[in-house]
Design brief:
Radius of gyration: 23 Å
Number of helices: 14
Number of strands: 21
Distance between the termini: 52 Å
Largest sheet: 10 strands, mixed
Length: 446
């Protein structure tokens, strides 16, 4: 099996211009259970979406870390086994800057460099922080994601993918046989290209679409505008960006079966919105998740906003304990003996502040529009160059007019300080990061 995978991976780059051959290879490949091996099967078979927090695995890795990781060994003594209060009161928090400053002292004595690879993420200082993940972690990731997607009937079918790929301008799509993907150009945001994507999905009988929320929203908006029937889609799988209210409104209107997954680069926690309604079930078999308040105390009540803090259950090379993600949520339902449910997740609050002149601020969630305004726009983005002034970039629907624009201005002014000004700017496209992720707010405020 490893030989087959190696051959196909070698061919992959050469198959970009020959999608039919790539598709035929996909058709003859064995199931994912065979393709990804025992580790994949072991993870997938034991996943229980309703499982309670796995305190045995939590305390195993915490006490291992205290014994074998220099930073933790210096900072803590072993915990009483199973004493969650001791864990919550004794073990401190890590953040992105700690990944930069502590670095090697977070590696365990069992760390084997040949089995790990460096992954980088931005720190609050602007310097890239690095951490280590196992090279074969993709088997765990696929096991969880495939089982999540299976709730919509996904079973090794080929998927359409609109995420972070940029293709040569003379290539409309490419097919990756092993990952079972028809990959589209996420940066080619035109109506004509959306029609190419639609035609390709129909031609290959693709029933599942994997996207950034912003990519799915743009595609669905154009499909609606062009009267393209999307009822053949059995699942739209979202991840890697905040799933925004106006996106949810459109997907529900089009009756698209959405699953949205919350995770992060460090691979410490997973939560899933199985119904596309903004309620995220914590997947306790993946990692350990907590909410903490501004004082660092653990939240166990509903509807109390807190920061998401996560702990690995299985990265024994560089175990990160109580890692502050910078993402915020509250509990819709808190359960000690089963999976808790989070409300909508808002990412990186430090990066999602819209400032008034007096240094007060609101987050983009506070600016959410009413449904009767959303129907007049096809894209929305906030830009702030200076405190007290907000530029709202709009891709207009054909029904957009001066009346709608005045209503928008009044809406935003009502959410900001009376001294703040609002400017509506009509644009043809919205800005994205280099990796294709959508930016709801672009701020130059330091």
């Amino acid at each position: 099996m490893k030989t087959i995978v190696k051959i196909v991976r070698t061919l992959n780059s050469q198959l970009d211009r020959y999608p039919i051959i790539a598709y035929l290879i996909f058709k003859i490949l064995p199931s994912n259970r065979m393709l990804f091996g025992k580790m994949y099967r072991d993870y997938r078979d034991r996943i229980n979406f309703n499982a309670k927090p796995n305190l045995k695995m939590l305390f195993d890795i915490v006490n291992f870390s205290i014994e074998k990781v220099p930073f933790y060994k210096k900072s803590y003594t072993k915990l009483s086994y199973g004493d969650l209060n001791e864990f919550e009161n004794k073990i401190g928090f890590l953040n992105r800057d700690d990944l930069f400053s502590k670095n090697e002292s977070l590696l365990s004595s069992d760390f084997q460099k040949d089995k790990y690879e460096i992954v980088t993420t931005g720190g609050t200082s602007g310097k890239p922080a690095k951490f280590y993940l196992k090279k074969d972690r993709y088997k765990k990731e696929y096991a969880f994601f495939h089982k999540v997607w299976a709730t919509k009937g996904y079973n090794d079918q080929i998927r359409g993918v609109i995420r972070n790929e940029r293709l040569d301008k003379n290539i409309n799509y490419k097919i990756s046989p092993i990952t079972r993907e028809i990959i589209f150009d996420a940066f080619r945001n035109t109506e004509e290209y959306c029609k190419v994507i639609y035609k390709t999905l129909v031609e290959y009988k693709v029933y599942y679409l994997q996207c950034y929320p912003s990519s799915a929203f743009f595609f669905a908006t154009i499909a609606q505008k062009q009267n393209l029937d999307l009822s053949f889609l059995k699942g739209v799988f979202l991840s890697s960006e905040n799933y925004l209210y106006h996106q949810k409104v459109l997907f529900q209107k089009l009756k698209l079966p959405v699953v949205s997954v919350y995770g992060h680069s460090e691979k410490l926690a997973l939560a899933v919105d199985f119904h596309g309604d903004g309620k995220y079930k914590v997947i306790n078999d993946y990692g350990y998740l907590e909410l903490i308040d501004k004082d660092g105390d653990v939240i166990k009540e509903v509807d109390v906003i807190g920061e998401i803090v996560t702990t690995t259950l299985d990265n024994y090379g560089q175990p990160l304990l109580r890692y502050r993600t910078g993402d915020y949520s509250s509990y819709y339902k808190y359960e000690e003996d089963k999976a808790s449910i989070l409300n909508n997740i808002e990412g990186r609050w430090e990066e999602m502040k819209i400032y008034n002149n007096d240094n007060t601020y609101v987050t983009p969630t506070a600016l959410n529009l009413h449904n009767d305004l959303y129907i007049h726009i096809e894209g929305l983005q906030y830009y702030q160059r200076a405190k007290g002034h907000l530029e709202v970039r709009i891709i207009p629907h054909q029904s957009y007019n001066d009346i709608v624009e005045n209503r928008l201005i009044n809406h935003y002014k009502s959410r900001l300080h009376h001294s703040s000004t609002v400017e509506i700017k009509i644009v043809n496209k919205l800005s994205r990061n280099a990796n294709g992720k959508f930016l709801l707010l672009i701020s130059e405020i330091k």
